[in-house]
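ok trying this again, last paste got cut off
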Amino acid sequence: QVQLAESGGGLVQAGGSLRLSCTASGRTFSTYAMGWFRQVPGKEREFVAAISRIGGGTSITYYGDSVKGRFTISRDNAKNTMYLHMNGLKPEDTAVYFCAGKSALLGPDIIKLMRKYDYWGQGTQVTVSS
């Protein structure tokens, strides 16, 4: 069983930056595909970014179209932590951000699917004011 905990959310002005963190319990974090999703009330959870588990010494990152070029996902397996660096924030980025994990090597199409993840954090609110 893995537990995930997000932190780093808050209120920021448009154009500003935030860094979200997702810390995992357990010893096998490096084997997990990890993702960030976000949700606003009344809408489905939206894929934001994902990072594959380390394979051959590297990992692959994926981004939703609305955040490409502004957000960067990364992971530090020594700290059991994944990050989401958010730059150029816009009011439409306002949402609850969730981290998710699955102990598997997920391909580029699968890793973006919410239903493929087994573990979820409680979420952290990000509010971007105009």
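PB: full thing came through this time. Residues 110 and 116 are 7 Å apart (CA to CA).
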